[in-house]
UniProtKB/TrEMBL annotation:
Recorded catalytic activity of this chain's protein: biotin + L-lysyl-[protein] + ATP = N(6)-biotinyl-L-lysyl-[protein] + AMP + diphosphate + H(+)
MF terms in GO: ATP binding; biotin--[biotin carboxyl-carrier protein] ligase activity; DNA binding
Biological function: Acts both as a biotin--[acetyl-CoA-carboxylase] ligase and a repressor.
One GO BP: regulation of DNA-templated transcription
GO cellular component, as recorded: cytoplasm
Superkingdom to which the source organism belongs: Bacteria
Homology family: Belongs to the biotin--protein ligase family.
Pfam families: BPL_C (PF02237), BPL_LplA_LipB (PF03099), HTH_11 (PF08279)
InterPro entries per UniProt: aa-tRNA-synth_II/BPL/LPL (IPR045864), Bifunct_BirA (IPR030855), Biotin_CoA_COase_ligase (IPR004408), BPL_C (IPR003142), BPL_LPL_catalytic (IPR004143), HTH_11 (IPR013196), Transcriptional_repressor_C (IPR008988), WH-like_DNA-bd_sf (IPR036388)
Name of the protein described by the UniProt record: Bifunctional ligase/repressor BirA
Amino acid sequence: MPATDVRQQLLRLFREAGGQHVSGARLSRELGISRAAVWKQIELLRARGYRIEAERSRGYRLLGGPDRVTPEEIRSRLGESLVGRRVVCFERTDSTNLQALRLAEQGAEEGTVLIAEAQDAGKGRLGRSWLSPPGVNLYTSIILRPEIPPWDAPQMTFLAAMAVVRAVEEVCALSPRVKWPNDLLLGGRKVAGLLSELSADMDRVRAVVLGIGLNVNMSPEQIPSTLRYPATSLAIEGGRNYSRIDLACAICRHLDALYRLYRERGFEPVRLAWEANCDLIGRRVEVSCGEGTLRGRVRGIDGDGALLLDGPGGGVERILAGDVRPLGTDPGEQATKEH
């Protein structure tokens, strides 16, 4: 068994023990290695920041670990999950999306997850940058290979958004709301952004890379006042810091479950879940898009992920890309274009 897998199994056994001691003999037997090899792997875990107690005649006990996202930590918690079957971690990289696209082109297996402590060229939508300070947030990209045509690929962004919503609800007891096309908000301020990128032939997807940037433990001082859209973090909204490891694992689990649902039943369950978590349904908005601005009342999203606005004469305006801003509450306004 590779050393990385041994450490994953060690962490799994410690967690299954629920804070109790595990004997060296049992660890040796379960892992199929000598007790001296067990000691060596425990020392390596300690060097990575894990607090492991050793007590004569009782064995070893896990007291705690670092808030650093490591392959061993993630894999030890995910079991047979497709998402996270392989985890690659960087101390620093240009962009997890760029790295994931490179790995996807090289044949990386579906479910590969890339996570960085910091990014030098974090990517946002429409060529914008994503602020990526070290050690406080979660920057991750996931490689999926759905058997869908390229024109269905935008659906995957909404699937990723719901995975993050459910992970934050589970770990933080906070309730982020989704904002079309790829943001998550808390208290009306941006807490996460998503960027899906595609590798495809004319008629089939080779790989979709789901990029997720989640502001976890950023302080108010770390958020620039010059951002286009007001930002926040889970720590600011919740009043305490949260485990990035817990959040990374929860995102993987929820994304895995949603992806399985998507492959079984298509986009409709994901679409309905996304709409149920969107505060703009039924509200008037202004959408800035290539040909100008469009105002109207949000009806929802369609099967392609396009935003639907009630249009003049009872018709529906379908918007594929743009920036959305909520407006007032005039009950009589239908969609109108301004150039």
